[in-house]
Amino acid sequence: MWIRLAAERVTAEADRLTALDAAIGDGDHGHNLERGFAAAVAALPELPEGMPPGKVLVAAGRAIISKTGGASGPLYGTALRRAGKALGEAGEIDAAGLGAALRAALEGVQELGKAVEGDKTLVDALGPAVAAYESTLTAGGDLAACTRAAADAAREGAEATIPLQARKGRASYLGERSVGHMDPGASSTTLILEALADAV
Amino acid sequence: MRKLINAPADVVTDALRGLAAAHPSLRVDPEAGIVVRADAPRIGKVALVSGGGSGHEPLHAGFVGYGMLDAAAPGEVFTSPVPDQILAATTAVSGGAGVLHVVKNYTGDVMNFQMAAELAEDEDVEVVSVLVDDDVAVQDSTYTAGRRGTGATLFVEKIAGALAEEGADLAAVAAVAREVNERSRSFGVALSPCTVPAAGRPTFELGADEIELGIGIHGEPGRERAKAATAATAAEIVDATLTAIDADMPLAGQELLVLVNGMGGTPLIEQYIAYGAAADWLAGHGASVARPLVGGYVTSLEMAGVMITVCRATPELLRLWDAPVETPALRWGR
Q1: May I ask the CATH architecture of the domain B184-312?
Q2: Shortest CB distance from B81 goes to which of A26, A69, A112?
Q3: Which residue has the higher pLDDT, A3 or B141?
Q4: Please, what's the b/e burial string for B105-144 (b: 16 or more CB within 10 A of its CB; e: otherwise)?
Q5: Which residues of chain A make contact with B213, given a CB cutoff of 8 A?
Q6: Architecture of domain B8-183+321-328 in CATH?
């Protein structure tokens, strides 16, 4: 459900993401992710009926790694695979389990990409999103409240990348000229987390 | 911008079909996205595999053949190949003596090659990776993804490929590849941007009187924009380029491999004008050109402009440069 909705959002916004990427990267982010999520959706019907959600995420992540290319393929594919592995065999997703899965996704992305918050990458959306999810959970929030808080924090985090100077990825080659543009990866992460909030 | 394509989504596959038809000496699998030497795997020979986004032709598939690469994995336009592709290329050419991955230093290429190398190790294929990062336009590499791999990729693939053809082991082939990279520097200038087919719009805008200094090879904007008036002539553009390289790696007293590389949209006549200016500049600064190469080898679609790559040669590197090579894009001595 989440994967299909995320794929729809990414496809709908592919041109906008690509335009963001053209400003500070190489102008392919939207179309790459569109291809990757289309591959993930195509992999879903092949999976056995009643497969636990964690296993579905691992398979979707593998499909994204296989079809996307660029940096976003390994990063988003690893995020979904790590999240899926954290969910394990659980048949139902609860708020605490999904929180642990999002934390695992963030750690996987940071291991691979070596980015920290403030580098103007997707970590600037995912990091605050995981933190907001966890604090909402601690305050007693349910699944809907936690995922909504994560999506809102991701959007704020993505907006906050506009004045930053990129220190990772292709945008970093621009130096000061990367300032004034939203990071495309932070923007697509926001779309995916908003799809999650709408899907639960 | 009009393009000679069938459909944006089919650009790479269609180009690979054409490459296969034009060069029977290559084994091309458009579905798997790999280009392999017809005589691979060569048992006992170290195999060289490279790859990266498409749009830089003839790099890399045009360098597959005797004395250079054993296989190439071309990704979508300006997008690194996926791990499955790189793994398929690696296992197709593995002859038991190990495989060298030549990787241009871009975040996506590094990640996808790293994943492929881990998968290859699971299949008992020994892989060593060498990063190419020769672009002096990227300064302050502590705060960036590091220098980009550009024109030196050709030098690395030619020289390491020659040593592998002679039967050297994986450690020696990797060592000479690293040595060539360390001794090489590049700097590029764009006179016009390029358009990725899937995006349909130029990757950046340049005014009629502007040039972009310090470009990469993906249509990404460069480190600064200058009014063409400040570098109006080919000689002034070449001066800016070689001055940037010389500031990073002094050239005086050196014997050099020199590549004057058209970016895709600049005609050969202008590339020769640039080479003439480069030869004058180098002679005037006490450097000598041991081997020149002029042409579009590491391109950026139809971007107009030029990149200069130099390598501080040694007698051994020149010997390997002169060794026979037979690929679609480079051939001599055979």
Answers
A1: 2-Layer Sandwich (3.30)
A2: A69
A3: A3
A4: bbbbbbbbbbbbbebbeeeebebbbbbbbbbbbbeeeeeb
A5: none
A6: 3-Layer(aba) Sandwich (3.40)
